[in-house]
Predict the structure.
Amino acid sequence: MFLLRLAARNVFRRRGRTLIISSILVLAVAMFILFESLMVGMMDVSFRNVIDFEIPHIEIARKDYFTESEKSHTLPIGKRFIPEDRLISDVQKLKGYQAMTGILEFSADFISGRYEFPVRVRAVDPDTFNDVFMNSQYIVAGTFLDGNGPGVVIGSRLAEFFDLDVGEYFVMRFTDIGGSFNTIEGEVTGIVTTPHPDINLTTVFVNREHAAPRIGVEDLAVTQLMVRLEDRELASSQSNALMDTLGGNPLQARSYREGADFLVSLEQWGYLETYFLLALFLLVGAIGIISAVVLSAIEREKEIGMMKAMGMGESSILRLFMLEAGGIGVVGGALGCLIGAVIIFFFNTYGFDMDIFMDFSEIGVPVSGRIYGPWNFDAFLLIFVIVVIVSIIASILPALWAARKNPIDAIEKR
Amino acid sequence: MSLLTLEHVDKTYGQGDLQVHALNGVDLTISKGEFTTVFGPSGSGKTTLLNLIGALDRPTSGSVVFLDKPIGSMNRHEQAAHRRFHVGFIFQSYNLIPVLTAYENVEFALKITGIRDSKKIHSQVTDMLDHVGLSELMHRRPNQLSGGQKQRVAVARALVKHPKLVLADEPTANLDSKTSKEVIEVMLRMNRELHTTFIFSTHDPMVMEYARRMVEIRDGNISQDTER
Ligand SMILES: Nc1ncnc2c1ncn2[C@@H]1O[C@H](COP(=O)(O)OP(=O)(O)O)[C@@H](O)[C@H]1O
Ligand SMILES: [Mg+2]
C-alpha cells in the first residue's frame, strides 16, 4: 500500500513530465475511440444501406445464379426460378419473418439522348417490394412504381448524368432470353435519392409484370426472392436454417453478410487498420514510458541507493517503478477516455460528414452524407486497460535497471 | 560483548594497473553500545570501511562477522535483508524521500521491515520524532526543513527500527558547526538512551570530541585506536 502511495506522489510530483508522456497515450486512446466509433458507425450505416436498398436479410436464388452473377458483368437472366408454395411457406415460418418479394434482375443499357449507361434493372412487384425495401420512401420527384405501366424509377445520380426529369423519355436496351436485342421504353415516373450511393447511379426499377414478357420469361419467374426479417442478428442463423430445409434443391439462401462480402472484408480491414494505428501509437507511448522511467531512475539515483541501503528489496523497487509507469498509464488512459467521450458526444449528436473525406461510393462503400458514431463503452474499457497494461509492461526493463543500481552510489554521490 | 569483528580485511578496487588498495589487512572489533568515530584524511578508506561494516559491500579478502553472521560473504539479497533489520544509515546528504513528510520518511524505514501493525508503527514513529525533537514539524516535507532538521529526521529514520548498529558517513559534513553540534548531540543521546551502537566518520575535530573511541585510518590501515 505504501508503495502505491509513494508511486502516486512521485507521479504527481513530476506532473509536467507525467502529462507530456501521457499525452501520447491520450492521443492513442482518443484516436482509438474515435476510429472505433467511426468504423462501427460507418459499417453500421453501410450494412443498413445494403439491407434497406440492395440485399435484405436473406436472399434466395439458384446456386448457379449466384456463381454466374459474380463472374460476369451481365446478370444471368436465364438462371431464374418460379417460387414454389412449399418454399414460400418455409420462408414465412422463419423466425422473425416480416416480408418477402421476388425480383427479376437483368443488365441493360439505359439510353437517353445521345448517351447510354450500363445499369442493373430490378423488375419488381411494387406492393411487396415496398414491404421489404425502403426505396419508395426516398422518392424526391414523381412517384414510385404503381400498377404495371412501362415507367421506370431511376436514381438521382443517373438522372443528373442524363439530365433527366420526371415525365421525360428513355429507352433501355437488353438481350432477351432468346438472345436477341429488345427494349423497354417509356417515361421516368420517379427519381430516388437513397443513402446508398450505388443505387442512385446504377439501379433502375421497373414493373415486373411489364418487363417479364419483354425479356421472354414466365410471368411468375424471379431471379431472387428477397426476405426481410425483424432483426439483422437473425439473418445468418435463419439463412442457415433455410438452407437446411432446402436440402438438395438447386436454390441457395444467403444472408446479407455473404452478399456483401466486400463490406465484411472491408470491416475486417478497417478494424485491422484501427488496431495497427493503435499499436503504432502505443509503441510511441511505450517508448515515452521507458524514457520516463529511465529519466526518473537517473534523477533519483541517490534516492534508490538510499532505499536499497536501508534494505528495501529489489523487487519492491521494481514494483515501485512499475506502479509509477502504471500511474502514467492511468492518467493517460483516463484523460484519453475523457477526451474520447467528448469527441463521441459530438460525433453522436451532430454526426460526421463522410463526404468531406472522400466519395466512399467510389471504393464501393455504400455510405454518403452524415454518419453518427455510437457509444461503445466496451471500447473505452478495452483501451483503458490496454494502455495501463502496455505502460506497466514497457516499464519492466528500465525498472529492473533502476532496481539493480548499486546502493553505494547513494553514499558517495554528492 | 562484541557486535562486529573484522579480520585481515582487504578491499581492492579496479583491476590490473588501475588497482587501488583501499583497505589493507584491517582488524577491528566493535562492541555493543560503542560511540565510535573513524577519522582520517580524505581517501584514507573511511567510506570503504563503513560500507563493509554496513554490509553494503564485500571485502576482497578477510572476514566481516556480525553477531556470528558472516555478512562479508553474503549475497546481495542476504545483505539487503541484514541491513533492513540490523543496520541504520545516516547519510551525509540526508537522502530523505522528497515526496514524503518527515513522519512518512521515518515510517518508511519501519514499513520496509514488514511491520503492518499501524498502531505500533504510529507510536514508534511519533516516539522517535519526539526523541529527536521534531514532533512539531513531522508533517513537513524535506524541502520545508533546514539541513539540521533534515539530518535529525534521518537520525530518527535510522533508529526507528531499533537496529543494533547505526552507521553515519560524515553526517555533519554539510552542516554548520552549530547544527553539527545539535545533530551529534542527538546521536549521542540516542546512544545513551537506547544503547544503540554508533560508528561515524568525520573530518571535524569538534564532532570527534564526542566519540568515546577514536579509530584513525591512514592509507587503508588503522594507525591509531584510542578509547577515552
Ligand atoms: N568505487 C571505487 N572505485 C575505485 N576506487 C575507489 C572506489 N571507491 C573508493 N575508491 C578509492 O579507494 C580509496 C579510499 O576511498 P574512500 O573509502 O572513499 O575514502 P574516504 O571515505 O576516507 O575519503 C580512495 O583512494 C578512493 O579513490
Ligand atoms: Mg568518504
In short: The interface with chain A takes residues 47, 51, 54, 56-57, 77, 80-85, 87, 89, 91-93, 95, 97-100, 107-109, 111-113, 157, 169 of chain B (CB under 8 Å). Residues 96 and 126 of chain B are 17 Å apart (CA to CA). The mean pLDDT of chain B is 94. The helical segments of chain B are 46-53, 76-86, 102-111, 118-131, 147-159, 177-194, 205-208.
